[in-house]
User: Fold this.
Amino acid sequence: MAELRDVAERSDGETVSAVHLDAVGGIAGDMFVAAMLDARPDLWCPVEEAVAAMEPPAGLAYRLEDHSDGVLNGMRFTVEEPVSAHSGHHHHTHWRDIRGRIESAPLGAETRRAALGIFAALAEAEAAVHGVDVDDVAFHEVGAWDSIADILAAAAVIATIGPCRWSVGSLPRGSGLVKTAHGMLPVPAPAVVRLLAGYSLVDDGETGERITPTGAAILKFLGATQEPDPVPRPLSGSGFGFGRRTFASRSNVLRATLYAAPAEVRGARGLRTDEVDVLRCEIDDQTGEDLAIALDHIRGADGVLDVCQWPVMGKKGRVGIALQVLVRPDAADRVAAMCLDETTSLGIRRRRERRAIVARESRMSGNIHVKVANRPAGTTAKAEADDIAGVDGHRERRQRREAAEAAVLAGDVDHD
Assistant:
């Protein structure tokens, strides 16, 4: 099977700049998928491709169905395993085995990253709860194919939506006990408590499990902030995803509300918007040699978009370095921790900023990579400096660079 592509432009929907989740009934993997597909039916094709890429057992059926509880209309995402799949092998699957299958499957890069991220969050929480090594975590309920399909579908949705701001409102605590492969566990389940560290839970009077480990892992991976609603922006649409239980006081739904990019930015030629987290600190007590190594490590971390530094004058007349890291919001917590481990700074300031960016791609002119950008005023090309670094002489380098850029703009190139 050819490798799949995660390209938000495949969708017929407009660019999404923010998604807000309202866990009226709770949140589970199937509820998240159903809510997003109710809001954006065009996401169904990437979901089908992602699940099929993992080569599920013959007879596995997954479908999206209209559903109503008499109060609200929405969608329900269901996965039914063939009878032969309900064996111990499928319900006791080690994280290292699932990781290997995801890494080798012909998934798009962003779908693979999201699937691995959600599963890794689950594995780390389960390892901490049960006192085992992360690679030795044996998934039970999550090892079943219905849960694997939920996570793959959620990963495909997240990848196709693309970078955006995720937030969630109040989260229901639930109460009582839940039956698991480890026996009866208190609600919220121990793994859920670990995954949702820092979030506030409320008792809305409804009992039972309201947030599943998969639902909590999705929130953890997304880095969803807990707030009533995101900053003002154009409303794009919403969807309701139903869970399997029914409640006396409310619909068992998760609502996803999608917001578009601000019209003044979205309408500009060649521009789209997304959001990044900006991490900042100043350092005045780390050697330049060691700091250079640290910044190389940070620069290579997953989710880091850019790292820059400049000299500053600090307290007591000390000359120091100001460090700024641009990072995807879903990776901000991890990268902030890495900055504190790699540098001598005792704290990191962070904020979220909206940015306008131009569409760009890399093309080849001979053996030189050329970055092509679709700017509002027209297309520009810039040869990669590393590819001409081996050419001797300033004039010769300039000639090679200009020739490569001209060839790209003339269309006489190969796409990278």
Residues 1-12 have pLDDT under 50 and may be disordered. The two ends are 21 Å apart (CA to CA). Residues 109-130 form the longest helix (22 residues). The chain has 13 helices and 20 strands.
